Amino acid sequence: MSNRVVVSGMGVISPLGKDVASFWQSLIEGKSGVDYIRSFDTEPFDARFAAEVRDFNALDYISTKDARRMDRFAQFAVAASMQAVQQAGLVPGSSEMERAGVIIGSGIGGINTLSLQLDVMKDKGPSKVSPFLIPMMMSDSAAGRVSIIMGARGPNFCTTSSCSSSADAVGEAYELIRRGEVDTMIVGGSEAAITPIGVAGFSAAGALSTRDCTPQEASCPFDAERDGFVMGEGAAVMILESEASALQRGVEIIGEVAGYIATSDAFHITQPRDGGEGGAQAMSLALEKAGVRPKDVDYINAHGTSTPLNDKAETLSIKRAFGEDATGVAISSTKSMLGHLLGAAGAIESVICVLVINHGTIPPTINLKHADPECDLDYVPNVARQTKVRIALSNSLGFGGHNSALVFKDYVKDK
Q1: Which of 158, 163, 353, 375 is the catalytic position?
Q2: For this structure, is 303 an active site residue?
Q3: Is the model's pTM score more than 0.85?
Q4: Cβ(276)–Cβ(311) under 8 Å?
Q5: Does residue 402 carry a catalytic annotation?
Q6: Contact at 8 Å (CB) between 187 and 150?
Q7: For the CA atoms of 40, 310, 216, 298, what is the dihedral angle to 10 degrees?
Q8: Which portions of the chain are predicted below pLDDT 50?
Q9: 238: which residues sit within 8 A by CB, 6+ positions away?
Q10: pLDDT at residue 415, as a whole number
Q11: Which end of the chain has the lower number of beta carbons within 10 A, N or C?
Q12: Out of 158, 340, 375, 402, which one is annotated catalytic?
């Protein structure tokens, strides 16, 4: 018999708030975290908008020495992990950390550090490159740092599957606990790729919005005028543990992870397969694993990037997976407010699903003003919706054909 997997803590560093409470309040108010990029000069760029984390101070969480040896994405991950561990009542370095692991997903890793050190090598020569370059740019450096700080001695690794990276992190952590290999997982995702080369790369691929509008209007998932996504940054971390562990510790259980499946389109490195078969298969199999019927799902947090192909394909995927129940489920894309956190998107959207279940409020898809006849489901346009939510589904779809689906439930203790 497999273990039930529950949520006991969450932490967030985001463009909408640097803790869970402020993040959630901004989200349900429909605020946008998108603005003109301030971290570098965007004059030569076509895409000049992003959802940056403003006024983040790593020294609120770690020493100056440690901060200097971490890329920004790792700093975000450590901060979010500390918040989550505190809520869960875990004690870093204690005996309970011997059966605790860490998975922090990231699609890009330490691109900021790499970019800066390439400039150092060009200007001053290879002997001046930092000895911390490799440890700082590695995608698994965030997981390693969290493991060290928390004294977590179980599995410690990074999942990298593009925009599904942290959804897969949550899913793999869920599977480890289900199998009884660990009691607790510190799991999530982190990304900090709003750098000149990061923006240039995504822009060159034709992925970013260049709409003639205010920054706050640029991300408009499912809208007929959508033209690309807006880059975001940040981190989200959850504490997952076995039900038995949480009950033994007497900690408040705030949600349950009930199902996870990943599939591949096996079609194209950036484009989704026509018809949405891969995404539909991931959703259907995840619901089946969770013992949930499509008609029982109250909310879907859509991948909803605001790109023409993705939003159309995801709509088709939902219709395939849900059939006649597709029109009755509330769907929203919180990327309309957060931008696209790339490899961290799945983790922060998992946190959102748990918050939706706990608060009975569905965040809106803002900027949805012009109906697209090919995107004709209930996307909760522009205003949050109060409603009871017991079961939520989160979709993550990534470059490379990745499709990941997670099912969350309101926790109810068996009698």
Answers
A1: 163
A2: yes
A3: yes
A4: no
A5: no
A6: no
A7: -130
A8: none
A9: 7, 9, 10, 84, 170, 187, 188, 347, 350, 351, 354
A10: 55
A11: C
A12: 340
